[in-house]
Structure prediction request, 292 residues.
Amino acid sequence: MKYPDSIENVIKNFCARKRSAVKTTTELDNRIINASLLAQEKLKQTQSAAIRPNIWRIIMKSQVTKLATAAVIIVAVVFFVTILNNSTSTVWAIEQSIEALSRYNAILVEGSESFLGENGQLQMRDMKAWAVANEDQTKVEKERHDVDGVPTLITNGRETWRYDPQTNTVIKNRPYGTPEHWIGSRFFEQLNAFRDAGVINDWEVTYGKDPVTGRQRAFLTVAWLDKRYNGPRSMWFEFDVESKLVVSMKQWENSNWEGPPRIVSEKITYYENLPDELFEFEIPEGATVIEE
Prediction:
């Protein structure tokens, strides 16, 4: 029997796309299509109104027809699950990330940041920064900041050392402020509050996929001009939609993402805590120590 092209193509095209869920062969295609067309032909040939109520029962007794019906049900279920997955895979909100970030009290940020070089030009240098928040996550308690593998700032919560390798100088007990690269729940609570207060003049969320892993991503861009909040500034964040955590970020010292970013965080790792030894500084031999 010659099948209508539309029926045959629908079955073959669908099964080709969903082979992991529905296995198909030419023989199975033919059996399903034949059974469907045979059922349709029986309905056309039956004229008696008294017989018509029993036709469906007769057809369903056929093993081949049952196979066709089962295949249709499988197709419908797979199609529904596919639509459901596609519609929910990109759900994300800043409140979800705030909750997810609150579970971690320590962080490692790896990337680069810009410095003013000897020639007066900005240069990007490798950076790694570890930080541990205080108990209520209102501020950073301990931090270690390495540039090109050299610790340039370390604080253990009691003492702070800032080291300049070019002059071999250590400034000890220097007043310490929260670093820019601490990405915790409080940071995004503040961003959210800025938006509600109208301080942030640009807030946009887009979606995409990580090109390496294929995982869903949410991208948040924000910008503000208010100097009271260290403005003008613009930032870009990449969130993993499944974990809700920030996986990378960029920061500019202007409100329009213009020019090279000041900080590029390419990888962010989260911890419940970090060892105290990481935040102790050994003064280099021959270094000049200045206490403040």
Remarks:
- The first helix runs from residue 5 to 17.
- DSSP finds six helices and twelve strands in the chain.
- The chain has a mean pLDDT of 78.
- The radius of gyration is 31 Å.
